Amino acid sequence: VNPDLVRERQKCTFNTLELTHLLDGGEAKTLERKEREDYFLSDPAFKDEVPMEYLSHKEQYEHSVRKACHMFKKLQEMPHGSMDNFRQLLGGMLGSAIIKDGNPLALHYVMFLPTLAGQGTVEQQAFWISRAWNLEIIGTYAQTELGHGTFIRGLETTATYDPATQEFVLNSPTLTSYKWWPGGLGHTANYAVVVAQLYTQGKCHGIHPFIVQLRDEETHMPLPGIIIGEIGAKLGMNTTNNGYLGFKQVRIPLENMLMKNNKVLEDGTYVKSPSDKLTYGTMMFVRVVICQDMSSYLSKAVTIATRYSAVRHQSEMKPGAPEPQVLDYRTQQYKLLPSIASVFAMKFSAQWIWEMYNVVNSELDQGDLERLPELHAASCCLKALCTSDAASAVETVRLACGGHGYMKSSNLPSTYGLVTAACTYEGENTVLLLQTARYLMKTWQQARSGQTLTPSVAYLNLYSDWRQPR
Amino acid sequence: AIWENSMDCVVKAFYQVAAGKVKSAAEHMERRAKGGMSSEDAWNESSIELVAASTAHCRAFMVEKFVETVSKSSVSRPLQTVLTQLAELYALYWLLINKGDFLMFSNLSPADVDGLQLWLEQLLAKLRPNAVGIVDSFDIHDEILGSPLGAWDGRVYERMFEESQKSPLNSEPVNKSFHEYLKPFLRSNL
Predict the structure, then answer these.
(1) How many CB atoms lie within 10 A of CB A270?
(2) Residue B160 and residue A271: Cα distance in Å, rounded?
(3) Which residues on chain B are in Cβ contact (under 8 Å) with A14?
(4) ipTM
């Protein structure tokens, strides 16, 4: 071990294992995590013969599919399967260690299965979830279009009900209506949940989810009327297989509309759900998970940069003296230590919102929607801040490593690619902050009229008449 | 309304800033609407301030949750000290980055800023000996880090050199491009 690191470890004033246990949630959780890591990392099938960055785009994808299939097979064979294992493999650090630039099967587990569970009827869940879980089919979630992202009411893909055949006809009226971005859509998935504007009895009822078969289950050839492919190389996440999708009069049966909330009857009558807000749950869950992931990715980046800063010596602080560790420079500490502190801030905030999410979800089950807007506003701005803080902190600590941080092998460029992507997906950050602002403006009006406010905004009442003293 | 260099005062100031920014954005939007602008246009015109208000709101509760979680955690005194220093550093870092907002909306005065800057620098010095210990506590497996710069053993330069040997260009001493392009190019320049 490098002597500088030995010295650093000797002068540490606290028990590092105690902090490890605190961050993992207890000693048992630490052991569980380590067992999981050993189980996956010791498998030679995950080793790369050649670093992935030296392979072509196509070869990188092919290797990632091989690893992803092996990963999920191993996961199903694991003696103690848990959601934690899934989380770690799909978005967490372990997954990104095995498939560095994005998992092409991630959306099957992260979006396709949860959407079936959240928006399908009991019958639909029984049929589709068992097929998806047993890997008879591979799914993804196609919402965003070339012309529309976070503003989902503007989506252009249409699903028009034909009562004569009891089918929906899916159509992409313009190039801008082509689905664009979904992970796994390019060449991996054979089914997708597609979000489209529902038309029945000559009337548009807004966006609804439909299960659409994209490729033949045996040959994997695209089905007639399906225009499909991969969108091309990106800043990062190049093996997620992000795709595009267009429809030319594609017919799907009536039962392929996910009807847990809203329904279309055989004659084309539209039956609206009493509360369309119930579908917000999945979105908020994903945003909470993103905050946890940002804390993990940043912890990785600061570990790399801090250990490097202890080993690296540079320049002369005092004339004639040996080159000091770069960690001794105050400017270097200013780059590293606030970034380390951010790891904790994100982790603790994510824990808080996770608890709030569980409370509000149980209230929702009892029909109480009162705190839903508060949770929505909090999850929007927290996702925005955690992702933008993480992206700028990863970039700061990359700069703290000088030219060596610019090497692909430092893993800082790939980490930046994964983190900065999160500023855009699951709601672009500025749009999310404006959604929080809408809630704050309403709350401000309530504060002015003397109403009681929910806990996270109660401070507005406290300071509503507050004036800066000068 | 006197500034104190305490975390109570700092956390309160973050909320004062958030409230001030929410209030300011709301008042400017109302003023625009009263001036005859449609509510949608007034919203768009005020959106820079609205985004800033949301950011300040979120930052305030991130700071508060950090401070609160650390103060409530039942850990040993040495660890409590380090976590408290990290929470203070996080709060002061964002306060000083946005000190203009704090001068506008909280009871921070220009004369107090020097003290906060000194406090931040003292925290950096106090945390310096534990920097490696803190990141060691993240307990990230070398294969997960996937970086010669951050491996546990600190053999940075050896590992970087080993990585460079994986470049396909190093698999042969002379690349064919020399014969195809460089050599004719060099001759043509003679």
Answers:
(1) 16
(2) 63
(3) 76, 78-79, 81-82, 130, 133
(4) 0.96
pLDDT on residue A81: 61
Q: Answer whether B59's CB lies under 8 Å from B14's CB.
A: yes
Question: Could you give the residue numbers annotated as active site of A?
Answer: 426
Hey, what are A161's tokens?
Answer: 């009900």
Helices (H), A372-465: 372-400, 412-421, 429-448, 459-462
Q: Which of residues 217-236 of A touch B (CB under 8 A)?
A: none
pLDDT value at position A366?
A: 80
Q: Residue B2 contacts by C-beta under 8 Å, 6 or more apart in sequence? A: B107
Q: How far apart are the C-alpha atoms of A468 and A448, rounded to whole Å?
A: 18
For A386, the token pair is 């955690």
8 A C-beta contact, residue A305 and residue A103: no
What gap in Å lies between CA A91 and CA A357, rounded to an integer? 19
- Residue A207 in contact with residue A153, Cβ under 8 Å? yes
**Record: contact A94-B144, CB cut-off 8 A:** yes
Tell me the nearest-neighbour CA distance from B179 into chain A, angstroms: 23
Q: Which phi-psi region, left, alpha or beta, contains residue B139 (left: φ > 0; alpha: ψ -120 to 50)?
A: left
Helix (H) or strand (E) holding A454: none
Minimal Cα–Cα distance from B190 to chain A, Å?
A: 35
Chain A, residues 84-113, CB within 8 A of chain B, namely 93-94, 96-97, 100
How many CB pairs (< 8 A) connect A and B?
Answer: 288
Segment A274-332, tens digit of pLDDT: 666 555 666 777 888 899 999 999 999 999 999 999 999 999 899 999 999 999 999 99
Does A20 contact B168 at a Cβ distance shorter than 8 Å?
A: no
pLDDT of residue A86 exceeding 80: no
Let me know if B18 is exposed, middle or buried by CB neighbors in 10 A (0-12, 13-18, 19+).
buried
User: What is d(CA B17, CA B14) in angstroms, rounded to the nearest whole number?
Assistant: 5
Pairing between strand A270-271 and A243-247?
unpaired
- What is the distance between the terminal CA atoms of chain A, rounded to a whole angstrom? 57
DSSP state, residue A323? P
| pLDDT score of A78 | 80
Candidates A304, A332, A375, A446, partner chain B, best to mutate (most B CBs within 10 A): A304
Whether A56 and chain B come into contact, CB under 8 Å, resolves to: no
Q: What is the 3-state secondary structure (H, E, C) of A109-151?
A: HHHHHHHHHHHCCHHHHHHHHHHHHCCCCCEEEECCECCCCCC
Tokens, residue A94: 């372990």
Q: How far, CA to CA in Å, does A236 sit from each of A57, A125, A233, A412, A463?
A: 12, 34, 8, 12, 43
* A319: CB partners within 8 A, 6+ apart: none
DSSP A318: S
Would an 8 Å CB–CB cutoff place A55 in contact with chain B?
A: no
Euclidean distance between CA atoms A21 and A285, whole angstroms: 25
C-alpha span between A137 and A129 (Å, rounded): 10
Is the sign of the CA dihedral A292, A297, A301, A304 positive or negative?
Answer: positive
pLDDT higher than 90, residue A76: no
pLDDT of residue A91: 66
Amino acid identity at A247: F
By the CB < 8 Å criterion, does A404 face chain B?
yes
